[in-house]
Write the structure tokens for this entry.
Amino acid sequence: MNIIEITFSILVFPGLLFLISLAFFTQYIVRKLSARYQKRMGPSYVGPYGILQPFFDFVKLLRIKEIVGTKYSMIRVAEFSLILGIAFIVSSTLLLPLSPYNLVSEFDILIFFYMTSIMPLFMLVLAALSMPNPYTNIGVSRLLSIVTIAEPAYFASLIVPVYLATRGKIPFMSISKAYAYVPSLWLQVATLVIMLLSLIAYIISIQVKAMFPPFNIPEAEQEIIAGFETEFSGPILALARLLHDLDLTIALLAGVYILLGGPAPYRHFSIEGVVVLVVKYFALLFIVVAVKNVMGRYRIEQALTQIFKYSLIPAIISSILALMI
């Protein structure tokens, strides 16, 4: 029975099939809302209201477009790296309470962060460096520069609520244990400020992880062609974009559970619980898209300063306050 549950959880729900479908739908919402901000139509032709356009774009790159490489390109290394990055994100869903086969242990938030932030980023960098190009190297260096500040802020914004919610409980620092107690943190005066600071740090760091304006410096097309994606084409570009969309999707799911309490106070898979999950997910997504479309692009030194001021510093303050109360 466990084998069936594990297989279903990894391949169907909330694993590969569900997560990719949600990632495509998330991309559709991002493109559609961004188009409305910019007085454009956005995806409109493939599927009802253009909803299948992200899937069609993926299939077109994967099956129709060819890979263009140079003498020094390591195409198989790039493909394997991106697939491995996707596999880490998909496997991390077993640590979310959403999974029918939910893995629970002390400090599983650290494993979740490793699988959703460290390894996908490492695999993306490895894929980019496998297709060498001067523009690619610049894009990778810019990417590493900003995530050096953004990832610690993202990590702190998630670990602080989990620490507060599981303090004195077993299993300690577990996502599945924490999410049910998160709503109470928003209702207590002592922890309200900490949660607000964590939410601010999370929103800013998400913009960096998704490489949305004003922090899309690593792929600034007007300056460095397409950054770390310069040499990506065909199936490699399809996998890179899928990895990007999955990275945003799993980060939003993490925010929904760790910062907003998931379906709490309702049960999972109840009608009310599903509605609450959907509302919280798209509330976070709308905030991210709004920031994306009202901001211009920073220069690299400006971006590093703003990430430090508005993401890392709030995350540090919230961490200190959490340890003091």
